[in-house]
Amino acid sequence: MKTTIRERTERLYDTQHKLETLVDRGVSLSSERDIEKLLHLFFQAVIELTRAQSGALYRMEDKQSRLHLVLVGKKGKPVSVSDDAVSLDARSVKRKGVALTENEKRHNILLQTIETNTPLLIDTKGISEQDWFPQALREDCEGTVLMVVPMTTSQDNNKGVLLLISRQKAESSQEEQFGHREVEFAKALAAQAAAAVDNKDLFTSLQELMDAILKVMAGAIDAKSPHTGKHCARVPVVAGLPAKAAHTSGKGPLADFEFQSEEELRAFEIAAWLHDCGKLTTPERVVSKAAKLEMVTNRIHEIRTRFEVLRRDCENSLRKRRITGEVSESEFAAALESRHKALLDAFNFVADCNVNNAVLNQEQVDRLKEIASWEYVGNFDKKRGLSAEELDRMTDDALVPATEKLLSDNPEHLIERSHEERDRLHSYHFSLNVPKYRFNHGELYNLSIKKGTLTEEERFIIQEHIIQTIFMLDHLPFPSWLSQIPEFACNHHERMDGRGYPRGIKGHELSLPARMMAVADVFEALTSYDRPYKRIKPLSEVLTIMQQMCNEGHLDADIFNLMLESNACLEYAQAYMLPEQNDVSAPLQWRVEQLSA
Fold first, then answer.
1. Who contacts 313 (Cβ-Cβ below 8 Å, separation ≥6)?
2. DSSP three-state, residue 32
3. pLDDT digit string (tens) for 475-534?
């Protein structure tokens, strides 16, 4: 009786210890993110709990179509093996209701275990000679029992199969062989491991999905306009170069910089892909506006028609005077030629003011105003054929015929900004001056732009892409470990001297990754060769411009210097720039020459 009580007590203590171990290993499995470490941890734990002599682990991969041998070994000594060491086709049991043949069951215990989702205890005799059985375990099989345990989640999603080999059978005892308790412990731990692997696989697949979505979004922005080139796809590459150099340099002003975790690095990479996501909302006609009167079409054609009307009105008026004898034939011809020349000169002047390279002074603006005051008679109702939105903006209810100006700035040219939009912009306290109107399509107003083609309202829309980026990222429920993404992504138009936008933040208030993003954004924009609105710049000119921007308090000089010292700019140039652009072979030598100059 005492012996029986002692043995049962020992078994109870042993069972309690194993249960505690099971719980402890389960917690460890659920918290481990590295899949290789997770599998090693599971393998060691199950060997310990079942007191197995050795074992092997097969992982279900390739969307549950193949089993790969990934671990083999003994307690404390699991060894990773290459995925192609043993590869078994599991597609025959991939779908429920597809049964294995008796021949398949006899020759492939792994597939039988997956099909039945039930642990198996079998003698190793004959099994160890199968092709799928690990070569390294065959010498341990004499007089042993093989336990085969499926790693299956609660949703019947198989993640692999575990093989365990019992210790050598003793002459007078069976206690070294697997029993019911060992099977249950192995089954419980395999289920926990399967859940942990499933969670890891799900996390990995979600990351892959997020990466794919980010790249699709960036590709959509780049494809939206040739003026963007491949900016969204290349900025992550550029941004990664100084980040990597700062992380590994160990010297200079940025020697102490390092990403605190893989999560922070991941946040930086995602921020680089998202840094211009607000451009999805930027109207293409504003981005690519090549002429001052351009909207969906270039309104210079409408202006030209009005000049044609003035020319015909002039001819008709003079001909009437010639017919009534008020002017002679010679006077008629001279007056007609003079008026035609004046109209042609005026139209040519207006047309020249409309193009992108026109830079106007005040005298030219005054001449535009004088031409704009010329009048013609309109005989057709301006309100016919309009959409409801256009009709709401029309205020002129004069009857036709009516006298109209050659160039007009009418109330219907003004597109109001909604109260909701205005309140939303003001609630963020941006430093940018928000124009009263969303658009101002006034003809004289647009033609009077002194440089470029964009009005004040359109320049704000271009700059507003970063505001829209802020709005978009503010609505994304980032987990805590990705909470820095908005700060990294949304400050690349801020300046070190605080004169940037949209918030006017000074450099010391920005994180180092945010400043890296700003440098990367400028570097890519200057080095790009696929934008139709600008000429291609060689690397030497790009570096000179960026050095000047550092001197003016625009960019972080330490990050720019790191790009030179680490040859990051040269690395990018060789991979992503045209060969003829790459005219700097030694960035440090270039800087010495610049300083000397």
1. 376, 377
2. coil
3. 999 999 899 999 999 999 999 999 999 999 999 999 999 999 999 999 999 999 887 777
Kindly list the distances between the CA atom of residue 141 and the CA atoms of 44, 134, 298, 343, 538, in Å, as whole numbers in the listed order: 19, 11, 85, 104, 69
434-462 pLDDT per residue, tens: 999 999 999 999 999 999 999 999 999 99
Tell me which DSSP letter residue 146 carries. E
Would you say 46 and 190 are in contact if contact means Cβ atoms under 8 Å apart? yes
Question: Does the pLDDT value for residue 563 go beyond 60?
Answer: yes
Nearest by Cα to 122 from 136, 134, 97, 105: 105
- The per-residue DSSP string of 162-204 comes to EEEEPPPPPSS--TTS--HHHHHHHHHHHHHHHHHHHHHHHHH
Maximum Cα interatomic distance, the chain, rounded to a whole number of Å: 147
Q: Express the helix, strand and coil content of the chain in percent, nearest 5 each.
A: 55, 10, 35
Q: Do 453 and 239 contact (CB within 8 A), yes or no?
A: no
- The residue among 559, 571, 591, 557 whose CA lies nearest residue 527 is 571
pLDDT of residue 124: 75
CA gap 372, 393 in Å, rounded: 22
**pLDDT digit string (tens) for 26-83?**
555 555 567 777 787 778 888 877 888 888 888 887 665 677 888 888 776 767 665 4
For 208-213, which contacts have Cβ atoms below 8 Å and span 24 or more sequence positions? 210/270
| Per-residue H/E/C for 362-402 | HHHHHHHHHHHCCEEEECCCCCCCCCHHHHHHCCCCCCCCE
Share the mean pLDDT of the chain. Answer: 84
Nearest to 54 by CA among 156, 159, 134: 134
Tokens of 120: 């198996």
CA angle 413, 415, 420 (to 5 degrees): 170
Check if the beta carbon of residue 556 is closer than 8 Å to that of residue 518: yes
List, for residues 477-490, the tens digit of each pLDDT value.
Answer: 999 989 999 999 99
Written as six digits, the tokens of 252 are 């200079």
Q: Is the pLDDT of residue 348 over 70?
A: yes
